[in-house]
């Protein structure tokens, strides 16, 4: 599906940026790169910065005009650094990602269009876009590197795609044993821990049962918000047991954890 | 506020990436760059890629160890490409942005830590981080360019910051004492706590220094995700001190908490 979202770079000066854009695209699962009248392409510098995304560079389509680059697209979004005189429907990068993914879901093709390093897109080019997208930035230093701008927009495309596919945006591969280890402790286990903790604190002389102050409630608050797992509970209980033994002068047992 | 979120680059090989990171930071309104043992810095290549973010490069702090880079931080997030043996609390970039902004809102400082271009962060370095963040990517081509990864995370920081600024100001007036109590502990305070905890566990016979297993890393993981406040840190340290005194047969001092 992501192959139906193309990245269009207009009149790029630095081949390194083409390579950086190709790498960012491949990282995020996009494949189709279209270059409108690039200044220097193909180039070893592009290849170096692509850092293995050679297939994207080799498959890049080089065309003479923006019009050709947009053939077949049903949605065109142009990157815009500044406010323009004519108000235009504007997206932020997140909305751009979602709108793009929705568009390919209904069978459309999408172009994300990036302008020149120093001058961006012309007004005429921007008028060929249904939407403009602006990457929020420091007003006093607002111009992103071209490959960095591509990275942000294709990242948002991937986030939207993962969201739509119902895929997690992070994959925690946890082994079966690790699963057991991360199984949360129950509240009654926690209560038994607090009892054990309290008696140990009395035993070591840290807690005065006559003047308990807020100590236990503070410790409850700390451990209560920590999502203690069963494994961690065992460790914490083990520490208390060994503390008591050591204080009583009994032989300490080594941890087997 | 964003000045309290620092970008830490560990052992960077290519100065161009340092420049690219500086530019991305300045674009997104971040200012503090810390370089741990960079291979080539300062460098004209960094300056060229920074493209005007010279102030970020000039102000960059160069340190020898990750530990120094994290002084004063209450939240440390490390970028991680792969699954690790020990499961660790994982954020996606969006969650990372929100968590970072929340942390500086309560007066904390945040470090976003990026590893080497080819090898990332070591397991030891990753264990100094409370959270790992993974930028979702094409499983077959998953390694982002360093500056591109910085761009994605600082972009999400800016998005979260804008989101937060758009909301009605929350509870800004907090009493001085409450502030002190909820003020987060810094990572260097946490490190001192882990050292104290480790030596105490050895002393009570729970931890065998010859066979430490995963005990300390599990305890780091537990306390690392718990957002310990300075007050809580004092309580936990006090418990250790009293445990040691009690084990050594010294008189226990009552808690004054």
From TrEMBL, chains A, B:
One of its GO terms (molecular function) is RNA binding. It is an enzyme of class 2 (transferase). Its EC number is 2.1.1.200. It is found in: Cytoplasm. Residues 5-155 form the tRNA/rRNA methyltransferase SpoU type domain. It catalyses: cytidine(32) in tRNA + S-adenosyl-L-methionine = 2'-O-methylcytidine(32) in tRNA + S-adenosyl-L-homocysteine + H(+); uridine(32) in tRNA + S-adenosyl-L-methionine = 2'-O-methyluridine(32) in tRNA + S-adenosyl-L-homocysteine + H(+). Pfam families: SpoU_methylase (PF00588). Gene3D superfamilies: 1.10.8.590, 3.40.1280.10. Its main location: cytoplasm. One of its GO terms (cellular component) is cytosol. SUPFAM superfamilies: alpha/beta knot (SSF75217). It comes from the Bacteria. GO terms for biological process: tRNA nucleoside ribose methylation. Keywords: Cytoplasm, Methyltransferase, S-adenosyl-L-methionine, Transferase, tRNA processing. InterPro entries: Alpha/beta_knot_MTases, RNA_MeTrfase_TrmJ/LasT, SpoU_MeTrfase, tRNA_m1G_MTases_N. Homodimer. Belongs to the class IV-like SAM-binding methyltransferase superfamily. RNA methyltransferase TrmH family. This is tRNA (cytidine/uridine-2'-O-)-methyltransferase TrmJ. It comes from Metapseudomonas resinovorans NBRC 106553.
């Amino acid at each position: 599906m992501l192959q139906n979202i193309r990245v269009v770079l207009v009149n790029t000066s630095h081949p390194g940026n083409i390579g950086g854009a190709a790498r960012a695209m491949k990282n995020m699962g996009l494949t189709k790169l279209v270059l409108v009248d690039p200044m220097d392409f193909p180039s070893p510098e592009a290849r170096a910065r692509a850092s293995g995304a050679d297939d994207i560079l080799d498959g890049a389509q080089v065309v003479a005009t923006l019009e050709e680059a947009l053939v077949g697209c049903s949605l065109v979004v142009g990157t815009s650094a500044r406010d323009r005189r004519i108000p235009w429907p504007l997206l932020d990068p997140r909305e751009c990602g979602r709108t793009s993914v929705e568009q390919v879901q209904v069978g459309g093709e999408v172009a994300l269009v990036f302008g020149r390093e120093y001058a961006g897109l012309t007004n005429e080019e921007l008028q060929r876009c249904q939407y403009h997208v602006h990457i929020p930035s420091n007003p006093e230093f607002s111009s992103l590197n071209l490959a960095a701008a591509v990275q942000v927009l294709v990242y948002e495309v991937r986030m939207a795609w993962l969201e739509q596919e119902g895929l997690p945006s992070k994959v925690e591969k946890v082994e079966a044993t690790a699963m057991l280890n991360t199984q949360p402790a129950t509240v009654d286990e926690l209560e038994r821990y607090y009892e054990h903790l309290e008696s140990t604190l009395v035993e070591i002389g840290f807690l005065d049962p006559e003047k308990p102050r807020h100590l236990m409630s503070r410790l409850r608050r700390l451990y209560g918000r920590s999502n203690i797992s069963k494994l961690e509970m065992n460790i914490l209980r083990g520490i208390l047991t060994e503390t008591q033994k050591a204080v009583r002068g009994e032989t300490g047992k080594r941890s087997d954890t």
